[in-house]
């Protein structure tokens, strides 16, 4: 699954890990995150994320 990086703080959302502190289970694709999900480090919205280049 595709990783996404926050363009504000460089946090990487890894679907294999999810975001347990926000109740996002491992295996959750970025596209399946709730629309109101925010970056756990800086509070940026999903719109501030881009696919991570491999």
UniProtKB/TrEMBL annotation:
Keyword Electron transport: yes
Cofactor(s) the protein requires to work: Fe(3+)
Keyword Phosphoprotein: no
SUPFAM superfamilies associated with the record: Rubredoxin-like
Protein keywords: Electron transport, Iron, Metal-binding, Transport
Rubredoxin-like domain location: 1-52
CDD domains, sorted: rubredoxin
Cofactor note: Binds 1 Fe(3+) ion per subunit.
InterPro entries recorded: Rubredoxin, Rubredoxin-like_dom, Rubredoxin_dom, Rubredoxin_ET, Rubredoxin_Fe_BS
PANTHER family: RUBREDOXIN, RUBREDOXIN-1-RELATED
Family label: Belongs to the rubredoxin family.
Record-given protein name: Rubredoxin
Species annotation: Trichocoleus desertorum GB2-A4
